[in-house]
Specification:
Layout (H helix, E strand, L loop, with lengths): L1 H11 L2 H12 L1 H6 L5 H8 L3 H13 L3 E5 L2 E4 L1 H4 L10 H4 L4 H7 L4 H7 L4 H5 L3 H7 L1 H12 L5 H7 L7 E5 L5 H9 L4 E6 L1 H4 L1 H9 L5 E5 L12 E5 L7 H15 L4 E6 L13 H18 L6 H10 L2 E8 L5 E7 L1
Parallel strand pairs: 3-4, 3-6, 4-5, 6-7
Antiparallel strand pairs: 1-2, 7-9, 8-9
Helix pairs in contact: 2-5, 11-12, 13-14
Organism: Micromonospora saelicesensis
Pfam family, one: Dimerisation
Protein name: O-methyltransferase
Length: 341
Amino acid sequence: MTENRVNLYSLTDTITPWAVRAAATLGLADLIAAGTTTLDELAAATKANPDALHRLLRYLAVRGVFKETEPRVYALTEAAEFLKTDHPAAQRPWLDVDSMAGRIEGTFSSLTHSIRTGDAAYPVRYGIEFWDDLSTNPDRATSFGALMATHASYFDQVVQGYDWSTVNHVVDVGGGTGALLTEILKAQPHLRGTVVDLPGVVEQGRARFEAAGIADRAEVVSGSIFDPLPAGADVYILSNVLHDWNDSAAEKILQRAADAIGTTGKVLIVQILVKDENDNFPDDPARLMFITQMDLRLLSLMAGKARTWREYAELGEKAGLQVAGSTVIPTGQTLLSLRRG
């Protein structure tokens, strides 16, 4: 009985997640790592109330996020290392409540609405649809684009996991700031590429392409993924795109890609799946927890959905496409290749 109560408390505690986010937003881990370790120094650097900051650090020290090495002097623990801006896991941007991430996380206070209705909670919480919010607020669009770029940890696996040898032109549909396309073009000098996304996000791709030295092979197209796509490319990538939409919208996006590929092109879906082609859940419990948690995030934000291999195959069939092959890369994403049936 006691054990059940402890587990339930751990599952329902709302203080710790927001306390960690407060520390991440204030940049405490970066400051401590750089030698700003006393309470007074940290309060001055973050423009925080010293007493309130002390209480935050005291609680997080009790939870093992920071440690108090002597009275009101702090050091990082292994957990706090993940809050540093330069940590390869890129967790800090997702915990910064002053960014789009904070607005996203705030949506979950209205999750019950999504469970009752099957509709997104974001407009209930903020009075505007998620994608409309981005399209009408450039700062939020920029912030969201930066969050999407943190997914770069799997990009090299996409590059390695697909055969690009017969591909000349690739279009990244809903490709944000062009982060994935940049990695593909850098690794495959024979390719040229196009990224398609909303104006507030995709225009950031120009500077990225220039910095990577691929601007002569990379094109930016501003537009909706529901509009006709640039036609005639060899591969149309949908990476972490279809899960943002319900079945009806996802089918329309796939239909646009199917219309663009002609008779010889392919659509490449890149997603972590709930179940594989044999109807199996992921073997890794952490991966299963991630994808089921992501599923609720997608539901809450935009009535999206994490899907199984079979569900993606069925969506493809409705757009006149059939599975040509699939590969699971080490980071857990499935590369699902579709072509005209």
